[in-house]
Automatic annotation (TrEMBL):
Protein's recorded name: Uncharacterized protein
Superkingdom in the source lineage: Bacteria
Organism expressing this protein natively: Bacteriovorax stolpii (Bdellovibrio stolpii)
Classification lineage: Bacteria, Pseudomonadati, Bdellovibrionota, Bacteriovoracia, Bacteriovoracales
Length: 215
């Protein structure tokens, strides 16, 4: 995927601002670009940064992904989720309902290609979700911390990993209530991270105590 600098992205945002069909994706790109800038200022190269980069690169390199304006507004104005996380959440929960599929401004000969691109993009969403979760887990002090804090994650990664070749994308993400619960619990990720560090410290102290007792 082509990498875009922040300034190049801004130019992309406004290059086609007069065309109504580009209004929603440009607004979404602008939200994602602002999020990217904030992450750069904080020098955060974490799971959120990588998720943001994947969405920015995907949307900036194609005009085929158009979301309904009400969902773009929801993503950009949310106080619960950053734009990248909010977009990922809605892609998982709403799926094709999220997209503007009117195609009124698209040439008839190009519509199958546009729909094909959207379908291929949507198929990548479960992978993005799993990679994001894996990235969050890597930021924690113990390897089992995230699943202990969010039991709903148990088995989900394995299901994606081993069954994705046999199941459709839709089948893999049918448990919408569970996905919603996961995102709601991820709102408290900072607390999960702190608690995990405490648990890791206790485990280390217990191990040292055991080792000392054996001397």
């Amino acid at each position: 995927m082509i990498r875009h600098s922040f300034m190049a992205l801004i130019l992309t945002l406004f290059a086609g601002h007069t065309a109504e069909v580009y209004a929603a994706p440009n607004m979404l790109l602008q939200c994602l670009a602002k999020e990217e800038e904030r992450l750069h200022k904080k020098e955060q190269q974490n799971a959120l940064f990588r998720l943001n980069q994947e969405f920015v690169n995907e949307l900036a390199s194609s005009n085929d992904i158009n979301l309904k304006k009400n969902y773009v507004d929801q993503i950009c104005s949310s106080r619960d989720f950053t734009p990248s996380v909010g977009l990922l959440r809605l892609l998982l929960i709403k799926e094709h309902e999220l997209y503007d599929l009117s195609l009124s401004g698209v040439d008839a000969s190009m519509r199958p290609f546009k729909m094909g691109y959207i379908n291929e993009f949507q198929k990548q969403v479960p992978r993005m979700f799993i990679q994001y979760l894996a990235g969050l887990q890597s930021e924690l002090a113990t390897p089992d911390c995230l699943e202990k804090a969010i039991p709903e994650l148990s088995g989900f990664s394995e299901k994606i990993k081993y069954l994705e070749e046999e199941l459709s994308t839709h089948q893999l993400i049918t448990q919408k209530n569970k996905i919603e619960t996961v995102f709601n619990k991820l709102k408290n990720f900072d607390s999960i991270k702190k608690n995990c560090a405490i648990i890791a410290k206790k485990r280390l102290n217990a191990l040292k105590k055991k080792q000392n007792s054996q001397l």
